[in-house]
Structure formats: C-alpha cells, structure tokens
C-alpha cells in the first residue's frame, strides 16, 4: 500500500542494471507521531508556559516532607507489615492458582478448544482490569480491610503469572511430553516430568518479579480502603501532614529496596 | 552400573536447599495468613457481589455510545492522550537517567547513586505525585500527563539500562580504528543498536500507562479513572459496566497492536 503511493527510488548501477530502493517509512511515522502529539496536547490542555512558570510549586510539598517526622515511626510498623503480608499472601496464592489455570489455557496440553479459549479470555479480562478497581469492588464485597487488598493482589498475580506461564508452556519442546505419553504415562504425569521442569525456573522468576511489583501496588490499595500502609498515606495527605507522609514514603522505599534485592538475588540464581 | 544409572547418579543434589527454601516459604505463608481476619467479611457480601455483576453485565448503552464530554468514547480518548503524552515525556526524561546508571558508561559510584534515586522515584505512589502536580497545574488532564511522565521514568530507565549494558563495544572499537569521530560513533555505532529496543520498551510502557490511568482518577488528574470511581462509590453499577467495557476493549486492542509492532521491531518480522 505505502509503496504504491510513494514509488520506490530507481537507481541505475554502473553495469547498467536498474534496482529499486523502497522509500523509508520513517517520515510517515514521524508525521503520525507529531499529529498524535498535537492532538494529545490539545485534549489534555498541556501548556509549557505554566510548567515553566510554576514548577517550583512542585517542590513545596517535597520541602514540607523534609525532615520526616520520626515520631510517627511507631505508628507505621503494623500497617507496613500488613502491606507486606497482603502482597505476600496474594502473590503466593495467585502464583499457585496460576499453574492449573495456565495448563488449562495452553493449547498444546489441553486439546479441547473451548476450554482453552475460555481460560485465555478470562485471563485477559482479569489482566486488563486495573488493580485499583478490583480492590474497590473487593471492598464492597469483603468489607474494608486487608482481605479486599489481598483479593485484588491475588487476582492480578493470577492473571499476570498465568498469562506468562501459558505462553511458556505453549513454546515448550513437546518431544519429551509425547514420548512419555506414548510410554503410557497419563497427561498429568507427563506434564509433571516433561513440561514442568522446562518452565519451572521461569515460573518462579515471574512470580518473584510479580511479588516485587505487588508490594509497590499494595501501598496504593489502602487509598480505596483495602488495608495496609495506604490508609495512613491517605490520612497524612488528607490532613496535609506532609512530614508524616515523608516518614511513610521513606520507610516504603527502604522496604521495597530490601525486597527487590532479595528477590533479585533469587532470580539471578534461577537463571 | 549402566549409562543411565551413572547419569542419574550425577544429578545435582540440592535437596537440602530446596527443603530449606520451601520451609521458609511455608513459614512466610503462615505468618502472612495472620492478616486475614474472616470476621471482617460483611454478611451480605454475596448479594452485593451478585448485584455488582448483574449491573456490570447490563451496561448503560447510552453512556457507552454517545459522543460528548461525559461519554465513554471521549473519556477514552482523553485517557489515551494522557498516557501518550506522559509516555513520550517520560521516555525522553528517562534517557539521561539510564546513561547515568549504566555501569559501563559512568564510574560505579555515580551509577549506584543514580540507581538509588531511581528507586525513590519509582516507589513514591502515583497519588502523591498527582497531588504535587495539582499544585502546579490545577486539577485536570495536564496534571495527569505530568504524573504519568514521572512514574514512567523509573521503569523505563531500568529497562533502558539493560539495553545499554548489552551494547556491543567491539563495534565502537572497530569504528575508532577506522577513524570515526565521537559524533559518528554515536550516530552509526550506538543509536542503531539501541533504537529498536528503546522504542519497544516505550510501547510496552504505553500499554501499562493506559492501565494505570485509573489511578489518576483518585486525585482528580483526568482520564477515565475519576468517573469510574465516582460511579462505583455511588453504586451505579450499570455505568461502571459501560466504563469498564470501554476500558477493557481499548486495552486489549492497544495490547494487540503493540505486541505486533514490538515483535516486528525486535525480530524484524511479524
């Protein structure tokens, strides 16, 4: 299509032969991007002038966070641990449930097309629902508190790990699986000994990675009443007590840093 | 002992390590169970759930299909615009951060300090940034753009760094040996190696930003998030249904397109 509008460049070589060079698509792509940027600027009301004039306002709150209010520290421990527990429990359960769901969603293990399509569809719907919205719905069903947060994290982990896992399973070398089936092993046994060892390192690594991200997500979930440190954060922001917010953020960063380093250590080991 | 048995005997024995890890995991699991308090569950939870699901399954079609300032289509376009502009600004801002935290470009101490700064930027929740930016720009989509840009920097530069650290230095050395100057080395030696990876990373982040747009609604920073959360708090589940259907279709569509583009960029074919 594109080549028909912009005819290829004709080059005559020294030996008299003519060759055609296709026109680059870059100008077209750049034009599209510029148009998209222009429309976005119009829609969102982006104004560089305001940004240049008022960017110092951004640091007003940062300035109030420093120095953090260390007296607030004893109040933080319990919600912080709650946040970690929520994400740990949600990630663990989610990763465990993801395994059977992923098997049911991989077309090379389950031959029933209907089941495969159904589970793939369920996983994509779950994955596209924003975690915050799932958490909010969960608070209506399970009441305010850590359960709602755990459920939201569980569903997100299930969808995320499940999707990556079934893609892995579908790309696995099926030779060993077929050989074992032909020896008379059942499907589950063949999966356990032929496919599972191939996907295990990646499965664990994805789950750990998801857990890392979940700790960060769990911190926001409290904002909709789903328990954890987000509740305190919300309170601090609501009362404009930014020194307290500073303390919370500081502790959160340290926690995430530690968890990331531990999980990276184990993920490097798995690779 | 035949060949198979010798092979079996040479299998690495890490039973103790696996046992220890599993035990640790089990302990962590039991510890985290203490956060679950079943008495918190509201008794009418089940009927609420049924209400919600039936509401979502009967979406407000009028809201879904009309095109005005409150319609789902307009909100989706606004969300795309926020995510698009935010991703582009974040993508540009992340480049210097990435080079300053790549251990093969700058000395180790600088790289370490930049990494810690990045962890800080990444961990502060979007809600906090949103409030800070609303002081700058007032509530609305503009604040959303700036928040998206700032939250994107963290992940983008982390992925950029991986690409930079994988740079093939031999190409640069051979370019030096045939007399290229610094500018030529950057133009023909570094950019072609990084460009496709960077674009692929940026498209991936655009995907994620669309999904995170709901978060911005909490602080009044534009997009589909705010109407969604208002509708939920007012128990108008038909409206929630139509907003969610719009969002889910949009995200699936963008994800499909972005996957195709990224495969083409990285592997050269669809």
From TrEMBL, chain A:
Keywords: Cell membrane, Membrane, Transmembrane, Transmembrane helix, Transport. One of its GO terms (cellular component) is plasma membrane. It is a multi-pass membrane protein. The chain crosses the membrane at residues 26-46, 86-105, 117-141, 147-166, 215-233, 239-259. Belongs to the binding-protein-dependent transport system permease family. PANTHER family: ABC TRANSPORT SYSTEM PERMEASE PROTEIN P69, PHOSPHONATES TRANSPORT SYSTEM PERMEASE PROTEIN. This is Phosphonate ABC transporter, permease protein PhnE.
UniProtKB/TrEMBL annotation, chain B:
GO terms for cellular component: cell envelope; plasma membrane. Keywords: Membrane, Transmembrane, Transmembrane helix, Transport. It is found in: Cell envelope; Cell membrane; Membrane. It is a multi-pass membrane protein. Gene3D superfamilies: MetI-like. CDD domains: TM_PBP2 (cd06261). Pfam families: BPD_transp_1 (PF00528). Residues 76-258 form the ABC transmembrane type-1 domain. The keyword Transport applies. It comes from the Bacteria. GO terms for molecular function: ABC-type phosphonate transporter activity. The chain crosses the membrane at residues 17-34, 46-65, 72-100, 112-134, 141-161, 186-206, 213-234, 240-257. NCBIfam families: PhnE. Belongs to the binding-protein-dependent transport system permease family. This is Phosphonate ABC transporter, permease protein PhnE. The gene is phnE.
